[in-house]
Structures are given as C-alpha cells and as structure tokens.
Prior knowledge:
Number of domains: 2
Helix content: 25-40%
Structural class: alpha/beta
Radius of gyration: 19 Å
Number of helices: 11
InterPro entries: Polysacch_pyruvyl_Trfase (IPR007345)
Protein name: Polysaccharide pyruvyl transferase domain-containing protein
Number of strands: 12
Mean pLDDT: 88
Domain Polysaccharide pyruvyl transferase: 96-226
Low-confidence stretches: 292-302
Oligomer: single chain
Distance between the termini: 35 Å
Order of helices and strands: HHEHEEEEHEHEHEHEHEHEHHE
Strand content: 15-25%
Amino acid sequence: MTLQRRVRHALYYGNRPRRLARRFHRYSSAVLTPANYPRARVVNAYWFDQFLNFGDALTPMLLARAGYVPRLAPLKDAQFLGVGSILEMAPTGYSGSVWGSGLLYGEAIALPHATWLAVRGALTRDLVGAPSVTALGDPGLLASTVVVAGRPSRSLGIVPHHAHRSLPIWGEIQRRVPGSVVIDPAQRPSRVFRQISACSTVLTTSLHGLITADSYGIPAMWLTVDEIPLRGGSFKFDDYESSLNLRTVRRAKAGAAEDVLGQVRAGASSPAAEVVSSLQSGLLKAVSALTDFRSMSPVRSY
C-alpha cells in the first residue's frame, strides 16, 4: 500500500477513531458550505460506507452541497436514501425519502410508506410503484454542477469498478493509447470528477464512471467483464440509461485490448446535453423538497 493510500485509509476508514474522524470531516465540511447558512439542517441518511468508493460517497457530498448536514445512520433509523443500488436493503416499513436510489437485481419490491423524490431510472420507478411524476436520474449527474471541469489533458480515462481494479487489460490499453490514465475509484468524489472531466473519452466498468462522464458531456463506453460479473448484472446500467433517451447502446465486451479500443472508437457517446440538463434540474428540485422534512433538526453549534 502506498503512503498516499495509507494516509487516506487512516483518515477515512477502519476502526472507531477513524470513523469518528470521518464523521467530523463530513460535519465540518457541511457547515462550511455556503448553502448551509444561516443555519444548517441535519439529515439522517444511509449510504454504503464500508470502504472508500467515490460512487458510494456521493450522497454525503451532494447533501452538503444542497444545504444539508449528512448524518450517517443505520438503515433502521435512516430517513433519507440517496445514491446507490440500495433499495432492496431498505426495510418494508421504511418511511423516509428516496432521492435517486435504484434497485440492484431488477425485481419488484414494496416500500409503501416511502416518499419518492427521485429514482435512478424508469425501470426502478416501475418496479417499486413510484408515481409516474417521480423525477428520474442518478444524483451523480450533478457532478458538473459542483466541480468545475478539469483542463483537458488525457486522451482516454479508464475507470474500473473496484472489483476490476487489478485487471491486466488496463495496462495493455495504456500501452496502446498515449495520454491515457487509469482513474482509481477509491478516492473522494471531487478528485475523481476532476480526473474524469479532464479526459476526452471514458472507458469504464463502473456505473458512476459512466454517469460522471455523462455529466460532463464526455463520450463514454461501459465495458462488461464476463469473468468477474457485477452483482445484479446489467440492471443498474439499464435502469440508469432508461432515463437518457439514448439512440445507441454504449457497451463493449472485454477481450483483447485492441478489440476493446475498436469498440470504444466505434461506439463511445454521450447523451444529449439538454437531456442531462433536464435530469439535473429535476434532481435539484426534488432534493429541495427536504426543506420541511420532519426528521431534520437545526444544527446550532459544533
């Protein structure tokens, strides 16, 4: 483990002192966010926090930018579900809000007491029985609204899912594509956003690698790896893309590096800018409904 990764792990993950340090960082960052003045409100939210992955870390980041202080809560106490394929994990009696969450396995579930602010895509909306007027889109699409795009400097950004980080194909592609870079998903969202936004094209096995590229209008391609399949298969990708009105399928199959690159050159694309903008507006409007959310309380001092 590199020194940088040791420091990152020491600050954000591990035993109780590290969890407390992570909590302090979230609270202090949220309180220092201009959107939280004149007073901040706390949201008891659930997100996956077992190891650092930029996609899972989007919920607290985006809540803070929207004017709320995210408090990590166990599912039984949570009143807010955000980014991720986490709806199957929610108890049937869940009575909080859902903002951009999705299903993992594509099977119908019942959360009759939930408030549906937004869901990731039309497939999830239909399977959970959310109202037809529920906003669609993954909150990761807001990346470009919170982090300014980096200076274009990379020809190809490779964003592996954490399960695919050690695949040899990434090195093979880098040797063939000058100026390409492998972007580690085990970083804070803002760092990953800047790195992805500096790329001309993105190849990814990570859903949020694809979503981030779409937010910045960067042509992207999702790579499937049959040898190491993701839980839930392609459902979360299908669900997300159901919100985009795409005309083409943006999928490549892992194989020889040159074959993969050929698929990227032929098929990498991005959704229409007006579609992304509309989804962003819908997500922001949806999260603003938390203003009178009954589980929130004012934060008076730290």
